[in-house]
Design brief:
The chain is of the alpha+beta class. The protein contains 9 helices and 19 strands. A hairpin with a 2-residue loop joins strand 12 (181-184) and strand 13.
């Protein structure tokens, strides 16, 4: 993003006029074709009304909508213990919770007692308007913003209010016929009803695995039953205006606009298509916000990589066997990951980079010294 920002500044950013009375003849907009352009808008009207045909719901003024499906599923966890003879064993625990994806219970320790139905008629999906028309409150010039730019818009908000007509249409929709009902707070809920065959097979599996009388708290007390489904929508409806940076095209998408803002590809291969909430954000602020967001994701990825490498390496410190190729591979990968993640922190300051890099080398050094001590004791014996 930093390189893209520098490249855009080299090419120059033009500000699109908001009014015919700004001193610029609208026919001169053609000379801006292919240039990086900046525009602000107080209103943004989608070219089509976004709908979800499965639930027969529509969302006025939304530029993007997302249907979030959640599944009540059994989740397995375990705790490793050691008995008096030094033998390790596992104790398994199960609880029910809402997940954003179906959980495969086939490989559970008790798949029969904790079966997760995989029924998924309406999975998570997302829709974006093909384009939108923008204008300022005082201006009389309109511009199109195509889907390539709209896709980068963020700021999801849950949809919690619906009209009586919405509920009536939903009850007659495909989802309504499948058993979904509104339960408040924007949720549409469908309880799972096991068939006779499913119930019989589940009991047979419990008998085979010996879990028919094995109950845990999750079996007796829970907020949902495995297989229950619930749906909730999120939408992006701009209420505080928009600021946009993209490539300007002299070809409008609708008849009453004066050009289109689309994704712009810089000479060094970066794609620029920024759209953010707020009608008076400067280009510098927009790039700073986007850069901060990307750096936070990059920092999280680097930190996760280093933590994983440190845990893997440290877990091998007291048990590593240099003659074992698997130990060599695991420790080498962990050490390499720690070094790479440590070096990549250079963008976050030299001191932090050196600290993380030294820590990763320290892990390897401690492992080597402890293993050398073990080899010495073995040789003495």
């Amino acid at each position: 993003m930093i390189q893209a920002f520098r490249e855009v500044h080299k090419e120059g950013i033009i500000r699109l006029p908001e009014s015919k009375y700004s001193g610029l003849d609208t026919t001169q907009l053609e000379k801006y074709h292919g240039r990086v352009a900046y525009a602000t808008a107080d209103t943004a009207t989608p070219s089509v009304l976004l709908k979800d045909g499965d639930f027969d719901l529509s969302f006025d003024g939304a530029l993007k909508i997302r249907r979030n499906a959640e599944y009540c599923q059994w989740v397995e966890s375990y705790e490793e213990k050691e008995n008096e003879d030094g033998e390790r064993y596992r104790t398994y625990y199960y609880y029910k919770t809402w997940q954003s994806y179906p959980v495969n219970s086939l490989f559970f320790d008790q798949p029969g007692a904790h079966h997760n139905p995989q029924y998924d008629p309406f999975p998570t999906s997302e829709s974006c308007a093909p384009s939108a028309v923008i204008k300022t409150a005082q201006g009389d010039l309109k511009y199109d913003v195509d889907q390539k730019v709209l896709n980068s818009l963020r700021g999801w908000e849950p949809v919690v209010q619906y009209t009586r007509n919405d509920f009536q249409r939903m009850e007659e929709s495909v989802a309504g016929q499948a058993g979904f009902k509104p339960i408040g707070n924007g949720y549409f809920y469908r309880p799972h009803k096991a068939s006779s065959a499913e119930t019989f097979l589940k009991m047979a599996a419990q008998v085979l695995e010996g879990s028919i009388l094995d109950y845990q708290i999750g079996d007796l007390f829970s907020a949902c039953n495995a297989g229950d489904l619930r749906i909730r929508y999120e939408a992006i409806v701009p209420t505080q205006g928009l600021s946009i940076i993209g490539g300007f095209s002299k070809y409008p998408l609708t008849s009453d606009t004066h050009g289109t803002l689309t994704a712009h590809k810089t000479s060094n291969g970066f794609t620029v298509a920024l759209i953010q909430h707020g009608s008076r954000r400067s280009p510098e602020l927009m790039f700073a916000v986007e850069q901060r967001r990307q750096l936070m994701w990059l920092f999280a990825a680097r930190a996760a990589l280093f933590v994983w490498a440190f845990v893997v390496a440290s877990s091998k410190v007291s048990r590593i066997e240099w003659t074992n190729p698997y130990h060599w591979i695991a420790f080498s990968i962990a050490g390499w990951a720690a070094c790479v993640s440590g070096l990549s922190f250079a963008t976050w300051g030299r001191t932090l980079m050196l600290f993380v890099f030294a820590g990763s080398l320290g892990v390897g050094g401690v492992a080597w010294q402890m293993n050398a001590a073990d080899r010495t004791k073995l040789h003495q014996n």
